[in-house]
Amino acid sequence: MTSLSGQPAANAGWPEVQDLRVEVQGQIAVVTLDRPAQKNAFTGAMGDSLGRVYAHCDKEDDIRAIVVTGAGDAFCAGADLGGAGETFAAPGEAREFTASPVQPTAWQVRKPVIAALNGHAIGIGMTLALHCDLRIMATGAKYGIVQVRRGVLPDAQSHWTLPRVAGFAHAAELLLTGRHFSAEEAVAMGIASRALPADEVLPAALELARDIAENTAPLSVALSKRLLWSDPPLSADDAERLETEYHRVVMGQADATEGVMADLEGRPPQWTLSPTDDWPA
User: Fold this and answer.
1) pLDDT lower than 50: segments of the chain
2) 215-252 confidence digits (pLDDT tens)
3) Considering the entire predicted model, what is its pTM?
4) Distances, alpha carbon 122 to alpha carbons 8, 154, 194, in Å
5) Residue-wise pLDDT tens digits, 157-191
6) Which has the closest alpha carbon to 139: 193, 177, 196, 83?
7) Closest among 211, 229, 103 to 165, alpha carbons compared
8) First vs last Cα of the chain: how many Å apart?
9) Alpha-carbon torsion 42, 46, 50, 52, what sign?
């Protein structure tokens, strides 16, 4: 596991990983699902590793944003079907099983997580992308939450994430039919923010991540993300109450002064508040 500068990321305390790799570009962690010969088909080791990387990024203040993408020409082709008919065999009483194999989830990380879907995202490949805050998707690729066509059912909390981002009608159609859909449809349904040619997806995600890293206050972004992902979704009154409470956390602090002065002076801001050290009790 190396940074983009070629230095071992493990020197910074990064966890050991399998079936994915992590590179650090400035304040951005680029996480690549890394089984290109298998179209990055999902494995238990990949899920464990992704959770460990998310947990590390959450507490690492030098990381301001995360981009998740796939090696080769796919994002993730879904569950590894190498077990053929035994792929979805009963787990048995002695074996721990969860339909949500990445913990913590991307929405629990106090940094923006951007999914750069550079190619096909099927089954759990798509449901894990729904954990992210933003999705940029490649045109010409296949997308689908196809589990009902494999004799199982959608996973990774997709019965909660998909209705949040796409509404009940779109979620019901995709979850209950398991049909494929395009990147353009995903944008129209609110699942993705952009549909781009495959070779433009990762650069666009990195550009967005850099804008966040360079121009936004880390604690402000973390608090805003927490409000966006509140469960259950906030009522208008709850939003007013929590926005007021969180404003009391940041107003009068160094970042509230720095943001204004940096804008007036036309210079990059220098933030000092930390989601780790200054998170409200």
Assistant:
1) 1-8, 10-11, 84-85, 94
2) 999 999 999 999 999 999 999 999 999 999 999 999 99
3) 0.91
4) 32, 11, 18
5) 999 999 999 999 999 999 999 999 999 999 999 99
6) 196
7) 229
8) 34
9) positive
Contacts of 124 (CB under 8 A, 6+ apart): 42, 76, 78, 79, 101, 155, 156
**Residue 166 contacts residue 191 (beta carbons within 8 Å):** yes
Q: How far is CA 66 from the centre of its chain?
A: 7
Amino acid residing at 173? E
CA dihedral 271, 276, 278, 279 (to 10 degrees): 120
CA distances from 231 to 127, 208, 237, 239 (A): 18, 26, 15, 12
What amino acid is encoded at 204 in this protein? A
CA distance 247 to 183: 37
Q: If DSSP codes are grouped into helix, strand and coil, which group holds residue 2?
A: strand
